[in-house]
Fold this protein.
Amino acid sequence: MGHFGTCAVLCAGIAGLVSACAGNPPPAPIPAAFAKVGPALDSAELALRSCHEPQVAGPARTAIDGARVHLAAAVGGDRFAALQLPHDLNVVTATLALCAALDRTAAARGAGCHGEARLGMTKAEVERTIWCEPDRIDTSETPAGRREHWVYLPKTQLAGTTDRPVGILTFIGDRLTAIRRSTR
């Protein structure tokens, strides 16, 4: 299941437990569910260190910080804070799941798209190079025949993936006949 998945399951399970006792948390002793939240948040923080997508990990870190504040208040008997904890944990759970999915996507893409395109390659061969699949395909008709232009636009790269080139690959029939790289 991986580090992200394990933490996500842990946080999701604790969110359910906390929901069950959030309506009327006794001031002491600390409900068993509340006692498990701190270690789960510690585990989530460790998992987030492996998440290389700041726009994804940022909200989880904010939710973890909020959960710690709400946990302290809930242990002190604050019902609102106890009710907020499951929401915080659900955000952490969803973000960890997203980080895990992005890691799988990056690994799959990295495994399938590597190496340079070379003139004479077939379309299938080019799709397995660092260029992978094009963003769009344009065609042109000339007196010499039909040409297909695979267009690769600049885009944000997933962490763990190799920067894909930007440019246009031209095919006549099934063979690569021109490579035009653009600067970003």
The chain is about 55% helix and 15% strand. Residues 79-112 form the longest helix (34 residues).
